[in-house]
Design goal:
three-stranded parallel β-sheet, 3 strands, 4 helices, globular, 39% helix, Rossmann fold, alpha/beta, 145 residues
Length: 145
Amino acid sequence: LMVDHINLLGDNPLIGKNEDEFGPRFPDMSEPYSTELINLAEQIALKNGIRVQKGVYVAVPGPNLETRAEYRFLRAIGADVVGMSTVPENIVAVHSHMRVLGFSIITDECFPDSLKPVDVKEIISTAMTAEPKMTLIMKEVIKAL
């Protein structure tokens, strides 16, 4: 469950003319992911025996995966999870006054000092195994709203 994020994409979806009817020019990003929804998702996960963790997501441009030095840097600046999406969508949602619940499935644990070549089949298998649990949590959160 995402509690915050770091945007290293080098871009921002709000650059350009602001449409005031959608949201403010400078939206407050002090709570990009709803604490209320995070707590609800945690309760649902616990009730269903699903292990979840909270953390900070960092968005990078990709499409390549990170080097050992980059993983060390990302950890040093506070990242728990690395991905290539989600953050622009979150920024737009917060700009539009939406409450956001962010999920990320960890498909590859990256330890810089023991980094191994990526096995894409293993990553896909891990994601497919976790998907039903994430879907259950999402459905239950939606029902509770």
